[in-house]
């Protein structure tokens, strides 16, 4: 996963590389503990907690993490998981080709207009680049209205509220066709 994804004019190149839990832990720690990342639910995490969490993901055949690069510099995090085995087990009936996704844009003091939307578009394009992916599944916090709007912009359709152990979430789905229609509009 290191393809360059075309982005909105003026945003630059967005690429993904596999996350290295040891080398990237300090970078991620700064991102996930930042006040703007409250919905990531790692506000009080120590460096070792972040390292441990991403070591577990690296060892998990059903969960993968990637560092997103903006013009070669780390700028976002993307996780993909198999919802039949992680995160949503018992909360909905997974279908063949379902892929779960989380993303986090690194906090910055110099936001770039349209950047977060470009990131979620690039993440979705990367997930759908795999012909086996039929539908992307997300479960953002019910209160995360900004992400709900971003999800809608790339084609996600909310299905229902669900109760996860750590939060109330909005279970939403996006098929390849819904994504393509949303981003070509």
What does it look like?
- This protein has helices at residues 21-32, 47-58, 115-128, 145-153, 176-184, and strands spanning 14-18, 63-70, 73-81, 98-105, 135-138, 157-163, 168-175.
- Strand 4, helix 3 (115-128) and strand 5 (135-138) form a beta-alpha-beta unit.
- The model has no long low-confidence stretch (mean pLDDT 88).
- Helices cover 30% and strands 26% of the residues.
Keywords:
26% strand, alpha+beta, Lysine N-acyltransferase MbtK, 5 helices, Acyltransferase_MbtK/IucB-like, Acyl_CoA_acyltransferase, 185 residues
Topology:
Blueprint (H helix, E strand, L loop, with lengths): L13 E5 L2 H12 L14 H12 L4 E8 L2 E9 L16 E8 L9 H14 L6 E4 L6 H9 L3 E7 L4 E8 H9 L1
Parallel strand pairs: 4-5
Antiparallel strand pairs: 1-2, 2-3, 3-4, 5-7, 6-7
Unreliable stretches covering 5 or more consecutive residues = none
| Helix percentage range | 25-40%
User: Count of helical segments?
Assistant: 5
Provide the residue-averaged pLDDT. Answer: 88
Shape: globular
Would you tell me the structural class of the helices and strands? alpha+beta
H/E element string?
EHHEEEHEHEEH
Major sheet: order of its strands? 1-2-3-4-5-7-6
> Beta-strand level of the residues, as a percent range?
25-35%
Biggest sheet overview: 7 strands, mixed
- Radius of gyration, in angstroms, nearest whole number: 16 Å
Total number of strands: 7
State the end-to-end distance.
26 Å
Protein name: Lysine N-acyltransferase MbtK
Function: Acyltransferase required for the direct transfer of medium- to long-chain fatty acyl moieties from a carrier protein (MbtL) on to the epsilon-amino group of lysine residue in the mycobactin core.
Domain Acyltransferase MbtK/IucB-like conserved: 17-64
Pathway: Siderophore biosynthesis; mycobactin biosynthesis
């Amino acid at each position: 996963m290191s393809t360059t994804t075309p982005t909105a004019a003026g945003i630059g190149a967005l690429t993904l590389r596999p996350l290295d839990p040891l080398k990237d832990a300090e970078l991620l720690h700064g991102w996930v503990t930042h006040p703007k990342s409250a919905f990531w639910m790692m506000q009080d995490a120590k460096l070792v907690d972040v390292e441990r969490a991403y070591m577990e993901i690296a060892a998990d055949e059903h969960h993968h993490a990637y560092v997103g690069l903006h013009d070669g510099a780390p700028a976002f995090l993307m996780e993909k998981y198999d919802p039949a085995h992680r995160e949503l087990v018992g909360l909905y009936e997974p279908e063949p080709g379902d892929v779960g996704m989380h993303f986090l844009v690194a906090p910055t003091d110099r936001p770039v207009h349209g950047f977060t939307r470009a990131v979620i578009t690039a993440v979705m394009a990367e997930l759908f680049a795999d012909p086996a992916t039929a539908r992307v599944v997300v479960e953002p916090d019910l209160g995360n209205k900004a992400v709900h709007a971003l999800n809608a912009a790339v084609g996600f359709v909310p299905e229902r509220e669900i109760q996860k152990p750590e939060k109330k979430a909005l279970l939403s789905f996006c098929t390849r066709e819904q994504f393509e229609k949303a981003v070509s509009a």
